[in-house]
Design brief:
single chain; 222 residues; mainly alpha; two-stranded parallel sheet; 66% helix
Length: 222
């Protein structure tokens, strides 16, 4: 049943955001509106597993060692933020986009930035992982978080004067317990806070993650 729900969520997301964008032209500035559109799609639609696969393929095709690939896939903290940026940008470039001008070499730059954090890679525990209650709640809430996020995004993209989606009705219809409801709420609030802090520019991790966006593009996302 879980696989069916994930497939349904994916189809719903694709309905709002469309299929993966392919842009086989030159992007030379951070202020180019196309870079913002491409990044928005991947930020909403790309799964962590896909991003790891994209980055692995890119690094293999560009002469990076197995050690570098293994290190970058296991990064934590700031390193993981850099890895995420490198993964998305490597996919865009692999699909045909040509980065030039102030964006020339941006993918390799992001990879090198991520690799500089490889000292932070933590050794994997050999003991079996115990699934906590919080992890179970997160897993159950994930498809609903995606659905709610897509509803908000759809409303923003269409610029409707009044949003038709009711979160309260949705929660009642799906008979979600208080723990799942609180998790959904915290995710929505967290997303808004992250975008607010991104525009303010005082957070080192967010500055690193969104360095490829112009100030105007950041405000548009918020």
């Amino acid at each position: 049943m879980t696989n069916v729900n994930k497939l349904a969520d994916k189809l719903i997301a694709e309905k709002f955001h469309g299929a993966e964008p392919i842009y086989k032209k030159v992007i030379s500035t951070k202020s180019d509106p196309m870079i913002g559109k491409l990044l928005n799609w991947y930020n909403f639609m790309a799964q962590d597993k896909d991003k790891d696969n994209w980055l692995t393929d890119y690094m293999k095709n560009n002469g990076y060692t197995k050690s570098d690939i293994s290190s970058i896939l296991n990064l934590q903290g700031l390193g993981a933020v850099s890895k995420n940026s490198a993964s998305i940008l490597s996919r865009i470039e692999s699909n045909g986009t040509i980065f030039s001008g102030e964006l020339e070499g941006i993918v390799k730059s992001k990879i090198e930035r991520a690799l500089s954090f490889k000292q932070e890679v933590e050794e994997k525990e050999t003991t079996p992982k115990v699934v906590s209650i919080q992890d179970r709640v997160k897993a159950l809430a994930e498809p609903h978080v995606i659905f709610v996020d897509d509803e908000i995004s759809s409303w923003y993209e269409n610029r409707k004067k009044k949003i038709e989606f009711s979160l309260y009705d949705y929660l009642l219809k799906n008979q979600l317990n208080s723990q799942i409801c609180n998790h959904i709420k915290s995710c929505v609030v967290s997303r808004y806070q992250e975008h607010t802090e991104m525009v303010e520019g005082n957070d080192e991790q967010l500055n690193e993650a969104y360095a490829y966006l112009s100030v105007a593009s950041k405000k548009e996302i918020l």
